[in-house]
Write a structure and sequence with these properties.
Pfam families: ABC_tran (PF00005). Belongs to the ABC transporter superfamily. This is ABC transporter ATP-binding protein. This protein is of the alpha/beta class and 260 residues long. The chain has 7 helices and 10 strands. A 6-stranded mixed β-sheet has the order 6-7-8-3-9-10, sandwiched between helices. A 4-stranded antiparallel β-sheet has the order 2-1-4-5, with helices on one face. Helix 2 (97-107) crosses helix 3 and helix 6 packs across helix 7. Bound molecules: adenosine-5'-triphosphate (ATP).
Length: 260
């Protein structure tokens, strides 16, 4: 079951790494709801638990207490309806861009040829039509991350989880990747969660920004981003954009994160 009001529901989520008196409480009392199709950025300083929370939503990390539900069902492990993207594109060096995009289909033992048109279309939309048959070493860092994005989307996931996917790229490529991501996301409007340290990246991409911080960490601010979609990069230059960024910067300053 999924409703238009709560596709992802986190209720009083707590995470302790390690056990007993030696345990480190990374997250406490994390509660929020994400609508179906919403694009949410998780923003906060290093060590505030962004990756931990993302991994728990993806079923890749256990919850110590509280509950996480996706589409009405409790999360109890990785789900095939989820696409994941990390800072490192982790492409297979001996496979072409197209083969890399189709790799999850192969892993799920599905009919690869049935997905090939969709994979080619994704690569075309990501500006990689001419790179379909190239190997990762023949591609730039930004191109490799575009391939990773296509790979995360090829099986049409309902949920797209991204952990600082552009943070290793130079500033110009990073901005271009943000635009490319929104172009692809506009097409299917998956529910998306994007982890970042960058305030501007969060405000440009998201419908809503959740700021994490505190000791132990929790959600310290939940801000709706008012800019219309489709969103042009020029929105970055508006006074309102800068005001929202300044507000978020204050929220982060007031809630430094605990470190293990
Ligand atoms: N496997 C683990 N065992 C023990 N502590 C951990 C483990 N993974 C993360 N932590 C700790 O939990 C806290 C949250 O880590 P996490 O990586 O989720 O933060 P983050 O906000 O994503 O950080 P960054 O932005 O630097 O990636 C940190 O203090 C980290 O040291």
């Amino acid at each position: 079951m999924s409703t238009s009001t709560g596709y992802i529901e986190c209720a009083a989520v707590r995470k302790i790494y390690g056990d007993g008196g030696q345990g480190f409480e990374a997250l406490r009392s994390v509660s929020f709801t994400i609508r179906d199709g919403e694009f949410v950025a998780l923003l906060g300083p290093s060590g505030c638990g962004k990756s931990t929370l993302l991994m728990m939503i993806g079923g890749l990390e256990d919850v110590t207490a509280g509950s996480i539900r996706v589409g009405g069902a409790p999360v109890d492990g990785p789900r095939p309806d989820t696409g994941v993207m990390f800072q490192d594109p982790t492409l297979l060096p001996w496979k072409t861009a197209l083969e890399n995009v189709l790799f999850p289909i192969r892993m799920m033992r599905q009919d690869v040829s049935a997905y090939e048109p969709a994979a080619r279309e994704l690569l075309r939309m990501a500006g990689l039509a001419a790179a379909v048959d190239k190997k990762p070493r023949q591609l730039s860092g930004g191109m490799r991350q575009r391939v990773a994005l296509c790979r995360a989307l090829v099986h049409r996931p309902r949920l797209l989880l991204m952990d600082e996917p552009f943070s290793a790229l130079d500033a110009i490529t990073r901005d271009e990747m943000g635009v490319a991501l929104l172009e692809l996301w506009e097409r299917y409007k998956q529910t998306a969660i994007f982890v970042t340290h960058s305030i501007r990246e969060a405000v440009f991409l998201a419908d809503r920004v959740l700021v994490m911080g505190g000791r132990p960490s929790s959600i310290v601010a939940d801000i709706r981003i008012p800019f219309a979609r489709p969103r042009a990069f020029a929105v970055n230059e508006s006074a309102e954009f800068n005001e929202i960024c300044a507000y978020l910067r204050e929220q982060i300053k007031e809630s430094p994160a605990a470190m293990a």
